[in-house]
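#struct-queue
[09:14] JT: dropping the first one here, sequence first, then the structure tokens:
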Amino acid sequence: MKTYVVLCLADIHVGSKLAVLHPDTQGYALHNEAQEYLWECWKHMLDNIPKTIDALVLMDECMDGPSRPNNKYGTLITTPFGQRQAAKKLLEPVIWRTTESGKKVKRCKQVWSLIGSAWHIGEWGEHTLMLAEELGSEKWKSEKRAGHNLLLRYGNIVLDFAHHSSYTMVNRSMPLEREIRYRAIDNPLPKDMQLEAEIKLIVRAHTHTFGQWEDRHMKALSCPGWMFPFYQYGVAKKSMARIQPDIGWALMRIKPDAKPPIAIHVERYDLPGTDVYDVEVGKWWGSVE
């Protein structure tokens, strides 16, 4: 039986000063070392994802959204049109690839777009739908190009995608275990389909961290993001640790008749370390990774 390939990208936040940005974005250059590093990671991803992908799932927050009055999020691109065009520029090489002969061919057979949090998008919600349409995202039952909860079925295997997820600062597996328990109680599949297919993988985003949990019934995965933290607005406000995010992408291979039927590959990139100063020696030792 065929092996299906699904790529998930989450929390890209194009428009932020500390999020990934294509260097050829019209009107903007890479703003700092963080963006330069993230672009190198993005290029590594483009070089290592498969040439053919059955579904690209954009877990949303592709755009960072409006600049807040206190600007704690450090918005670089302040207009919805600018963020939308920058996100499109960044994502097009994922959806399309160039062959050795120079021909442009579609890499992703399907593109699915999810809707993220109102805090980031808010009044720019229509631009999320416009970006989804410009990227050629599939239509949902609502006839819109984006939605909240996506169920993809491959044979007797169903994958459950949503942007939103609860968050704990230390025990990252706890929200994923909770999602599995919820799905055991509240199965969104039609009753007639429940005899033919099962949800075997739950995929969530929003937290910018990688996590994985499984029981004997299904797996759950939290996707890494593409944005560095702002230390002045860290999650652990009383700790310099600030709960570092994960940067990277997730790839699933689904073979319904195999055991196990789902193989997950998550690529996570190193984060710049913390500079260490030795008081006794009186010297900076550089970064600890």
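[09:21] JT: and here's the second one, same format:
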Amino acid sequence: MPKIISALQAHPTESRAAFQARALDDLAPECARIRGVRKLTLNIVQEAPSFMPIPRPNPAAPPVYDAVMMAWLNEDAFSAYEAQFSGFPGIAHHYLVDEIVERDELPLVQGKMTEGIKNIPLIVAQKQHGDAARREKWKAHGELGLRIHTGMRRYVRNIVDKALTPNAPLVHGIGEVCFPTIADLQFGQFPKPEDRQAFLDDIAGWVEASTSHYATEKVLERDMFRLTHSRQPKPRSSCCFRGRFTLSFDARARQPQTIAL
């Protein structure tokens, strides 16, 4: 079943908080209601924890987004899914991915916030590596992460097959690195100093740039929003951009987080 990852960013005239509330209360439920959408999660991006290193600027890094939606859907449902973004304010970049679940020890409960905190790095690989090499490099990196990130309870590698949005930023991979508590992230990502160095040495061999997104995750599924549901779709705000979602506003400048994959 295809998996689509949609990176969402607010219009410059709207605050991050207002945009996220709109995505959570309006956009995500409408997408989850679509026939053929089997599972959907919305990840609300937070500020990076204060104990995380301050990243160095990297012009090759993807932008920082305000929310990340993940949808598992039938192929014939994408047109309806895409249409939900046509009147939604801001930027939407959609990527078709090949999902590889390496560890899955955090339950996803329908209609609930998932326990803990999740990092979603958007990764750009070094130019000298082709598709097969990128896959092998990330596979080896994943094996390293499974050993050293002792506090991690879910780990997913989403290899980007293609961008579905014209002019979307170049992204080769989208990770999901999940910890059940902030303390598990702080003390269980790199339990020993040598773990951090091994991590940095590894990514130096294949990663050009990455942008981290620390987020909380809500799980929505189509079963929650049956066609017989009495609630009508909410009217769109008058500030909405009425064009196709592929036409985007200039992104607000935010500093990418580049350390954790």
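[09:30] RK: nice, looked through the second one.
[09:31] RK: Helices lie at 16-32, 78-83, 131-148, 182-188, 193-203.
[09:31] JT: good to know. Residues 224-255, 257-261 have pLDDT under 50 and may be disordered.
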